[in-house]
Design a protein that fits this description.
This protein is α/β, with parallel strands linked by helices and 261 residues long. It is 35% helix and 27% strand. The chain has two domains: 154 residues, P-loop containing nucleotide triphosphate hydrolases (Rossmann fold, 3-Layer(aba) Sandwich); 67 residues. Helix 7 packs across helix 8.
Length: 261
């Protein structure tokens, strides 16, 4: 594996058995993600974006093909390499915070499971709350926070053990438009601060173009890589760039390709 590549899928396929027969979710998928790269998976509903993300995260074993994270095979037969998985942090669409735990304890939970002392967990939680913009809310309960703030806490929890790779499955899909724009800018800031690798799933074309270094467009099921598009706008990016002709040209190109599918 090229040392500059951090994730590599080679010939990956995913098939599911259903009462109506076998469903092919992904077919002959090859993709490389470089160290520190921000890659967005885009495509129509049911095209296999989330399936691909879960395969990268070790939550699903592919039916065929090889997955490498860092310099390690993610699977050896039916056995998952848990050391490779430790390089990964995952954020889902719903924050999935434990309601009976404070924000501080939610963020520190992965560290607790790794045997980190309580005082060290508390220090790390406070540092991460400051990073994601919810400093001062460490002792609050999840129900006391807005949807956007809960997602910030979920991102902090995923970052608590300093993963090299952050996998994000439509993390802002349930937020209102204004909060979503704000969270996109915040995520860009966090990524630029930490320098981690991000693989991000979305249905939103404009969100993909705003965030990505590279967009991977998947075809309808069975999911295959249809188009790979570099996005070369300078960073940091701001919401005002969305009205620029160069930005709109990429959005129009992707929308036209989706409409052709």
């Amino acid at each position: 594996m090229d040392p500059k590549q951090q994730i590599q899928l080679s010939g990956v396929e995913m098939r599911f058995a259903t009462p109506d027969g076998v469903v092919v979710a992904l077919e002959s998928t090859d993709i490389n993600v470089g160290v520190g790269e921000f890659v967005v998976l885009l495509g129509p509903s049911g095209c296999g974006k989330t399936t691909m993300l879960r395969i990268i995260g070790g939550l699903l074993k592919p039916s065929a093909g090889q997955v490498r994270v860092g310099n390690r095979n993610l699977w050896r037969g039916d056995q998952r390499d848990d050391e490779a998985v430790q390089e990964l942090g995952i954020v889902f669409q719903e924050a999935s915070l434990f309601p009976w735990m404070s924000i501080e304890d939610n963020i520190g939970l992965p560290l607790r499971l790794r045997g980190v002392r309580k005082d060290a967990r508390r220090r790390e939680a406070h540092k991460l709350c400051e990073l994601v913009g919810i400093s001062g809310f460490e002792k609050r309960w999840p129900r006391e926070l807005s949807g956007g703030m809960r997602q910030r806490a979920a991102i902090a929890r995923a970052l608590s053990y300093e993963p090299e790779i952050l996998l994000m499955d439509e993390p802002f899909g349930s937020l209102d438009a204004m909060t979503r724009d704000q969270m996109n800018q915040e995520l860009q800031r966090i990524w630029m601060t930490l320098g981690c690798t991000i693989v991000f799933v979305t249905h939103s074309i404009s969100e993909a173009v705003f965030l990505a270094d590279r967009i991977v467009l998947l075809s309808p099921r069975p999911g295959r890589i249809d188009t790979v598009l570099d996005v070369n706008f300078e960073r940091p990016r701001n919401m005002g760039m969305m009205v620029q002709p160069e930005f709109q040209a990429i959005v129009t190109r992707l929308r036209a390709r989706l409409e052709e599918m």
